[in-house]
């Protein structure tokens, strides 16, 4: 079975493949579905790109520049492993044919390195530090799609969604925080068609693993914070403890969230009510708590009342703290999606709604077009009519994105049977 993450199967003619995929791309962007010859990972990415209103002739926007860019990347965790990137990939960047690029978890390019001539070619498509290269802003591309699917991959020539990038081929791999599993960004190599081989994919994957190993070796020993929990944008909680990552079941995920929300402790009845409301069964609650205690260990979970004995941090607590400090951009950057979105436990549902509403209100009232754009291009905000209207209003006159936003607003308003903001003002 061929590797779905590699761009070309053994023996494939690159020129013939470029033509074949290019024809499929043109059919897709003019309204037809991609043909079967396109890899599944590419076809899915094309659909996501089109759904995010990316034009096949668009250019990635530049979000950070000058001092703002310098401050952001200096504070970013991947700055600590930049020497590793240069050590392992610097030879490619210096050979005159390739670029090495590093992006954050939102696809913002932090570093782009190579010879002057190759860098000039990259500038023509805004493949520069500070530009936003996630799929929602730049369409299908190796670093953006690697972030979207959380897997190393190659994107070959005409597999790119935007036409201005189709003369390039890229290989990229995501990088995670070894302590929490949180996505930190991606490492990418960009160059010509000759990059479409197993060696380039293996190289970026090995580089990502080396970076993660280095970050893990530099974790502070001991300390009172011995565990972290990830529940945002996930159906189940992931508990990172003692260098291991544990995925919890649904009820245990909900219980852990409720215990984190109430560090002072909860009785079994209180936890049961937050889980089941009027269908409370004390025996079931005690059994679930007993199983959770075996997973966490008595050194973490106490009883009478039930509470966490050590300091355990969580991604939703991070977002809450940032909002309390008025750091809206940072809170949105730390928010990969709603908390346990499929959970119907009353206590979890209330917390999910509270976090979502607070973050949404902060983005909406701030009126920053970049934050509004991030919201409406995210899966949870794609159908948010009010945010789309605020985004369009915040854009400068003449911006190409205004017409895209206007079309999206019209479609949503028609689906909801509502008048648009412009129509309401006329009336």
How many distinct domains?
Answer: 3
> Under the CATH scheme, which architecture of the largest domain would be assigned?
2-Layer Sandwich
Mean pLDDT: 87
Per the principal axes of the C-alpha atoms, what is the gross shape? globular
Would you kindly provide a written description of the structure presented here, covering whatever features stand out?
It is built from 18 helices and eleven strands. The chain is globular, with a radius of gyration of 23 Å. It has 427 residues and is an alpha+beta fold. The N and C termini lie far apart (61 Å). The protein has three domains: 14-217, GAF domain (Beta-Lactamase, 2-Layer Sandwich); 225-314, Arc Repressor Mutant, subunit A (Orthogonal Bundle), CATH 1.10.10; 316-426, no CATH class. Strands 2-1-5-4-3 form a five-stranded antiparallel β-sheet, sandwiched between helices. The model is unreliable at 221-225 (pLDDT under 50).
Summarize the structure.
The protein has 427 residues and is of the alpha+beta class. It has helices at residues 14-29, 40-51, 66-75, 82-94, 116-123, 135-138, 142-149, 198-217, 250-261, 268-276, 282-296, 315-324, 328-333, 346-366, 369-377, 385-394, 400-416, 421-426; strands at residues 99-104, 109-113, 153-156, 169-176, 183-191, 225-230, 238-241, 244-247, 301-302, 307-308, 311-314.
